Amino acid sequence: MPVSDIWEVLRRPLITEKGTALAAEGKFLFEVHPDCTKAQVKQAIERAFKVSVVAVNIAVMPGKSRRWKRWTAYQSDWKKAVVTLKSGDRIELFDA
Q: What's the confidence (pLDDT) of residue 5?
């Protein structure tokens, strides 16, 4: 499945304690579409936020299992991207 739309690639920013610490180093976390590549994430970030991306690291996060009485349900796996920006560039979404 080709993923072409910017907001289809970038699902949401991940604002966590660990992500806030990484933001001080110029690294930002995003949940991305499971079928997208590093090149697509880089292109989407550069178009959406008008910044220069130096590196993109991607990890597939395993879904969790949930139990209710005798049944077990599973959440879907999801993909996380750590985006490193050029020195001096910022994404205002994470500045709050």
A: 85
Q: Which of 95, 96, 74 is nearest to 85 (CA)?
A: 95
Residue 43: what residue type? Answer: Q
Q: How many CA atoms lie within 13 A of 39 on its CB side?
A: 3
CB 80 within 8 A of CB 29: yes
Task: Look at the block and give the residue holding tokens 């110029």.
Answer: 26
**DSSP E strand stretches across the chain:** 10-13, 27-32, 53-61, 65-68, 71-74, 78-85
Instruction: Tell me the residue range of the domain where 50 lies.
Output: 6-87
Q: What is the DSSP letter of 24?
A: T
Q: What is the residue-averaged pLDDT of the chain? A: 92
CB 73 within 8 A of CB 66: yes
Token digits of residue 82:
């750590």
The number of folded domains in the chain is 1
